[in-house]
Amino acid sequence: MTRPSVLVPIRVLEGESLPEGVPDLLSNAHVVLLGYHVIPGQTAPGQARMQFEDRALDRLEEFEQALSDAGATVEHRLVFTHDAQQTLDRQIAENDCLAALVPRALADLEDVLVAVRGTVGIDRLARVVAGLFADRDIDVTLYHVTGEDETDEDVDVLLDGLTDRLADEDVDPDRIKTRIDRDVNPVDAIAELAEDYDCVVMGESDPTLSTFVFGMPADQIADRFLGPVLVVQREPSE
Q: Does the 111-232 domain belong in CATH 1.10.275.10?
């Protein structure tokens, strides 16, 4: 099984640490550990690096060791930036990350909710879910909120396709469940259902990673779900 590449952003000089449970969650991943620090507009990145690099690298190396000890392969990046979102987007692209993690603590890892909305291809969702969880005793629920123009047949094709793909990737079919809701707000529905799960996997527009990290308007899920969220990225455009 190929390890999915996952970006883990940590505001390394602002007291953020690697939350409890995250190393276990990512034990089958290739982790791109991004330590970043947002600097004032008048400060040059090189100046900030000279001042803070040693302290930041010490913390990153501590987190890298914890991830490695859990079984992940890890490489780290340290960036001093004026624009955090631009930095995250660039690191995802440059490192060909399948997903980015909103790092939150978790005590157990038994039930994973996968929000399937068609915004990210089945192939990429399957590679992340199977890569991280196929060899583990973890139940996976595929959850879909139907759109106005979707037929029952459309939904069956979508969920059956992902179920079959996960089974092909050695996820135990007995551990895969599906759930469908109609006539509900997708973000509210996902946020409410997520409370019964340890981790959420969703496509990047459901909503975007920036929503989770920077608290933009559609942040209901980040506000209401306190566990980690894996945001699967769209296929890069040419």
A: no
